[in-house]
Design brief:
Oligomer: single chain
Order of helices and strands: HHHHHHHHHHHHHHHHHH
Distance between the termini: 31 Å
Largest sheet: none
Strand content: under 5%
Helix content: over 70%
Number of helices: 18
Structural class: mainly alpha
Radius of gyration: 23 Å
Shape: globular
Number of strands: 0
Amino acid sequence: FRGRASGRGAVLLLASVAFYTWGEPLFVPVVLATCVSDLLLGRLAARGSRVALAAGVAVNLAMLVYYKYSGFLLANLNGALGAAGLAALPGVAVALPVGVSFITFEKITYLVDVYRGVSRPARGFGGYLLYVFLFPKLLAGPIIKYHEIDAQMLRLPKANIEDFSAGMLRFMLGVAKKTILADTLARGADMVFATPAGTVGFGQAWLGILFFTFQIYFDFSAYSDMAIGLARMLGFRLLENFNMPYLACSITEFWRRWHISLSTWIREYLYIPLGGSRAGAERRYLNLWLCFLASGLWHGAAWTYVAWGAYNGLFLVLDKLFLLRVLNRLPRPVANAATFLTIVVGWTLFRASSLGGAGALLQAMVSPAKLSTNAEIWVTPDLVWALAIAAAVCAAPRLPGFSYLRARIDGGGGFALATQMGIALLFVVAVGKAVADPFTPFLYFRF
């Protein structure tokens, strides 16, 4: 760090490293070592060395594969060896560090950005470490591309009262979404998905996946709200990560609204290098499908995630082939409903513990006559209320008068003050609920 901002930068870096060390002390030296590698190889990549770029990306991917996929790869290899009558290899136990996927992707953006000339190499080790360890976004994103924050890292902005108040309001909203809605819905989803899939009836299967559908949105968007809010309180401006995704009228539109930082990362750092739209139609569709197959694997080391990625990739290709034309001819509420149903089916693959379990749940969802044979699923009133409120919040932007109300709130005055007081009250309730209830970690901490 240099100049007048050096003190703020040093304090923020030390706080960020201490924050991550509190949860992942053994992984910090690994990240520090790969950061040194990034800086050295990044300088060579900035001079046009493709070898340095490839080496830097390989180092980071090797870190990700070891910590996240070594157990998965070994289990599948041993399965293949067993089928061939050969002895299995000894197992490995590797703890998955929190946020390893987000850290890896951000480090790769630095290498690619300096190679492409989009950004200059980092001015110093401290500045680059702050980019990697900046604590608001460290554990579950948004994924910050180096060129998006390079200028802010250089001048280390100082928050004013407007930044602090807006950031605090956003942070409080995230806490309320997580604690009041996501954590409540999590109980319903966990209850259904923990039950043997073959014993779940038609109604319970739909309730379970709807619980999860809204849980994952309010859980993940809550973390993004909190990260964006905390960063704003420190003077940083992070890009939005969600934009009303359940109002999408196609899977293509859904991925422009859901986890925006991952979607844009895939496009800029995987889809385009594979050839993007410059290749022929068949190659373009294959590239698109492969990108979302990789997206599924990025989410977790299990075949359910691979299937979920392949499922989304298939519908993205179908959109390009003909489905978008069909959906565009339909009334938007109908197209929205069809897309939402497609998303819900996909979340079944995502949440299930196995492909067999996902198949059994999907079978129950299309069998109205199937009754539950398990009496351990209890849908309590708080779960019903949480599901109804979550659905209403997601659908509200389609209601008449929403745009007018939003404009009045954004315009300040009494509407804005009432909204702020309402969020503050929800925050107090959320903190009380968090103290009383068992701790429920964010879903994306596992990714």
